[in-house]
Every structure is written in C-alpha cells, then in structure tokens.
Specification:
Length: 329
C-alpha cells in the first residue's frame, strides 16, 4: 500500500516508516521538521517538508503519490506545555488535524491511522485500563487527542472514513540495529533522561514524587517498545478496507514499572550508577497507568515482542551510546 506518514521524521513515525518497508508497503514521509529529524528517514524514501494544516500541500502529495492511507504522528505532546499554552495544542493537534482530514476527504483518501494516547483516560477509575473505560482527560493535550477521536467517529459515520486510533502508553526504546532512536528537544521522557544521568551528560535524575500510593511510592507506567507499537498500526490496515470502520486500541505491555524500577533497570543494563534526587510530584501525573491491550492482541493478532522493560532499555541504551547527541541536528 502507498502510505503517507505525517510526522514520519519523528520518534514513533520514523520507526513506523521502517516497519512499513519491512512489511512490503511504500511509505512517503511528510514532516515539517519542527521536531522531526531529516536523517531519521532513509534518503530512498520520498520526503516532503510540509505542514499538515496546509490542505493545498497535503492534497498535492496525496495525488502525486497515489496515497491510499494516511498515518498521523505529528502532534505536540508536552503535557505541561499544553496546560500553559493550550492555543498551540488546539491549533496543531486539533485544528490542523481537521484540515488534514478535509484534504483527505477532498481527495478521496478515506483510510486513516491516528496516534492517540492513554492521556485521554485522565485518572482511570480501574486498572488495567480497557478501551471501554470513560475518557476524562486532565490536560489540554489529552483533550485535543480525545477531540480528534470524536471527530473521527463522526466522519466515519457521515463520510465513510475508516480509521484506527491507537492509545499509546509510554513509547520507549529504539530500533534494534541502533540506527534510529529517541531524540526530543527538550527531552522530558524518563528513560532517555535516566540514561543521560547515568552517563553524566545531564544532571541527576529527579524522581517526581515519592509519596504516591504505589508499592515504592513512585509512579507506575507501562513502557512499550516503539517497534511493537509500529507493528500494531500496520496490522490494522486490512481492517480499514470496508468504509466507515472506527477502531480504538490500547497499546501497552500491561506490565507496570515504577520510576525507581526504571532507574534500577538502567543501572543493570548500562552497568553505570544513576545519580538520583527525590523531588516533588509533577503536576498532572496520575499515580498509575497501564494497559489491558488484549483487544489489539485478539483483533489484530498483535504480538508484543518486548515484554521485559530491561530489553526495551537495552535498545535505547545501544542508540544513546552510539549517538550521545542524538541525530546531531
Ligand atoms: N519522571 C520522573 N522524572 C523525570 C521524568 C519523568 O520522575 O525527569 C516520571 C514521571 O513523573 C512519570 C514517569 O516518570 O511518572 C514517566 O514520565 P514520562 O514523562 O516519561 O512519560 P508520561 O507518563 O508523562 O507520558
């Protein structure tokens, strides 16, 4: 299939592009390079530097490349920033996505794969989280993702759009060959920050909150390998053949790890001591988030290859060790 990957130079998008090639598809990448890295995409892949909120540019790419399906990874994803600068989040994550969907419909492209998030659940009333739990985001980031989910449902009903929306838990790790990996600026994610604290590239890791009602007092999260995430997206393609299909899937391993467990795992993988500072809670952090992703496993045949967080961290470490400055751009 000819697939347009928007945000294909970003962290999850660039891993997905490689998995698409491995699965025999033809990815075309569109990225505005605000957060993406040109060198995360192999030079053989068609690449367009354009903005998803620009319907003329998107329409031209859809027609020129005979695109059948669009995958959309291009979002702002800093929870704290979404609270202080919600305009930016509504503009990019919602309004620009709406423009993109309009451009698709105007050009007869009706298959869509969307990156949603477990942040749409807010503070879940039960764990592990199943897709049918109420969604009540506690920050504008999660809200904009939920707004798009609702828009997709209406568009499926009214216009025959077929979509799969994936609610990610904590994407982590890097390509197994160490060639691409996580490089955010600023970096806020736990695993890359702990690795940098271990190597001394950054200050000691701050543990945000040690008084949560969890076994060791620190937050529990569900870390899932970026290549496992990518494979689930591709497994959904065949379900989107019929018109008006709307699918929602959680993607996580279902195994919670605390912040302290992540620090220990990084020490075990790297052989380095991680300097730690205990700090206050970060605003907006629920104590525990982990997935029941049996729906994706059953319906898509999704297999989780990386079930152990140490193995996920080992791939991240390989990338960080070889590329201490990320993509260097
Ligand atoms: N965290 C931490 N110190 C850091 C960064 C993150 O203690 O410097 C904690 C954070 O409070 C959360 C977990 O690590 O409980 C995962 O945070 P991350 O930002 O990686 O992902 P999120 O769960 O916010 O999507």
């Amino acid at each position: 299939m000819d697939v347009l990957v928007i945000g294909g130079a970003g962290y999850i998008g660039s891993h997905c592009v490689r998995q698409l090639v491995a699965a025999g598809h033809r990815p075309v990448v569109m990225d505005n390079l605000v957060f993406g890295h040109r060198s995360a995409v192999s030079p053989e892949i068609p690449f367009y530097e354009a903005d998803l909120g620009d319907p003329a540019a998107v329409g031209e790419i859809l027609r020129k490349e005979s695109i059948e399906l669009v995958m959309h990874f291009a979002a702002f994803a800093y929870v704290g920033e979404s609270v202080t600068e919600p305009r930016k989040y509504y503009e990019n994550n919602f309004v620009a996505t709406l423009r993109l969907l309009e451009a698709m419909l105007d050009n007869g492209v009706k298959k869509f794969v969307f990156s949603s998030t477990c942040a749409t659940y807010g503070e879940p009333e039960r764990l592990p989280i199943v897709e049918s739990l109420p969604q009540a985001p506690i920050n504008p980031y999660g809200q904009t993702k939920l707004d798009v989910e609702n828009c997709l449902k209406a568009f499926a009903h009214a216009y025959g759009l077929s979509f799969a929306a994936f609610r990610y838990f904590n994407a982590a790790g890097a390509a197994e060959d160490g060639s691409i990996g996580e490089d955010h600026s600023p970096e806020t994610h736990l695993i890359p920050l702990v690795i940098d604290a271990a190597t001394g590239r950054r200050e000691p890791i701050k543990i945000f909150g040690t008084d949560y009602d969890t076994p060791d007092g620190t937050c529990l999260r569900d870390y899932v390998h970026v290549d496992d995430l990518s494979r689930a997206h591709i497994a959904a393609f065949e379900k989107l053949e019929a018109p008006g299909v709307g699918l929602f899937y959680n993607l996580g391993t279902g195994r919670p790890n605390s912040v302290r467990e992540i620090i220990k795992a990084v020490e075990a993988v790297t052989g380095l001591k991680v300097p730690v500072v205990e700090d206050v809670r970060r605003a907006g952090d629920p104590p525990a988030l982990y997935a029941d992703s049996s729906k994706a496993q059953k319906e898509l045949g999704w297999e989780i290859k990386f079930t152990e967080v140490k193995d996920i961290i080992a791939t991240a470490w390989r990338w960080h060790e070889a590329n201490p400055n990320g993509f260097g751009d």
